[in-house]
Amino acid sequence: MKRIRLGLAGLALVCIMAGCGKTAEETASSADDAEGRTEQESEEEEESGSGMEMTSWQESVHKMFEDPYGDYTETGGEIVLLTDGPVEDGGYNEAVYNGVRMYALGAGKSFSYYNADIYEPESYYELMERSAQDGARIIVCAGNTFGGAVGAMQETYPQTSFLLIDSVPHDAEGEELSIADNVHCVLFHEEEAGYLAGYMAVWEGYRRLGFVGGKEEPPVLRYGYGYLQGIDAAAKDLSLDDVTVNYWYADTFLPDIAVREKADGWYGNGTQIIFACGGGLYESVLEAAQNQDGLLIGVDVDQCRVSDRFLTSAVKNIGPAVTDALDSFYANGGWNEGRAGQVKRYGVDEGCAAIPVVDTEWRFKEIPTTHFFEIYKQMKRGDRTVSDDTSALPQIAVTVNFE
Hints:
Layout (H helix, E strand, L loop, with lengths): L6 H12 L5 H25 L8 H9 L13 E5 L8 H16 L3 E5 L6 H12 L4 E5 L4 H7 L7 E5 L17 E6 L1 H15 L3 E6 L4 H20 L6 E6 L7 H12 L4 E5 L4 H11 L2 E6 L9 E7 L1 H14 L11 E4 L6 E2 L14 H13 L17 E4 L1
Helix pairs in contact: 1-2, 1-4, 1-11, 4-11, 5-6, 7-8, 9-10
C-alpha cells in the first residue's frame, strides 16, 4: 500500500480536536463531524481501491505519532525542543512536546529534544548553544526558566530563531529585556482557566478550597489570581458568605514532603479541594488527598486520567498554540512582522483556556456541561471579565488565608 503523509491538513484536524481557536462546545461538534466525514471518505476510498490505510482521524493521528518517516532524531534536527525536566511528564513538558512533534511529523521537519538540569542553571545556556551550533533552525524553549538564557543569547545567534513558551527574555535579575526579531513569545491567559476552575468548584458545592502554587512566576500567579476571582464570582452569584480559601506557594515545581505536609494539614482541617498548580508537585498533594479523602484540581493539561481524585483541571491548550506558532514560522520563512520580537497571548478567545469537556470524564455531579458553556460564552462575549494583573492581589470578598 502507498503510505501517505498527512501534512498540514492533518495539523488543521488536530487543532480542531484540541480546540484551539474554538469554544469547547464547537470543538465537540467539529470533532464529531470530522470523524463522520473521514470515515465515510475512507469507506469510499476502500471501495475504489485507493489503497488508503487510515479509516478514521484517530487512526491518522496515531499513525503520525508513530513517526513512520523517521523525522525524530536523537541529536540535532531542524526543530529543537529544550525542557527542564522529562519530556513525557504527563503534564506541561509533554504538552509542549506534543505541539512540536505534531507539527514536525505533519510537515516533515526533523526534530529532537534535550533536557536541561533544573539544578544546574548553566545547562540551559549550554544546551541552547549546542543546539544553535548544531544548525537548529528554530529552538523551542518550554517554560519561564528559559527566559534568562534566551535573553542572554538571542543576539549571540541572530541566524537562529527562538520560540519561547510562557516567558519573555529577561536578565539575571528577572528584568524584562527587549525581544529580538529572531524571537517570538507565546503566553497564555491562565487567569481565565483558573477562573473557570474556581467558579465551577464553588457551583458544585465546595466551600473550603485551597491553592498550592509552585514558584511565584507569572503563569502561576495568573492561575492563582484567576482562581480566586472565579471563586469570588461564584460566591456572589450564589449569595454565599461562607467560602474560604487557603493559599500558599511552595517555591518548587517538584514533589516535596513540605507540600504533602501542607496539603495533609489543610485536608485534615476541612479543606475539600486543592488546586495543585505547579508541575510535579501535584504528586505530593495527591498523596495527601488519598490519605484524607480530599479532591484536587489539575493544571495545564487534563489530569483526570491520573486519578479519580481530580475533579477537573484548569487547562491551557499548549500543544495547538505551539503548532500554530511553528506553522506561521515555516509558512512565512521565519517570524513575520506580527510575530518577530512580539508576544502572542492565547486564551478563551482562541479556545485555549478552559476546563476539559471534550474527550474526558465530566465529574461534576451538580452542574451540567450546559452551565459551563454558558459561563464560557459570557467570557468570550466580554460579559464576564477576568483581570490578568499580577502586580497586586485581586479585589475579592471571599476570605483568603495566605500562608
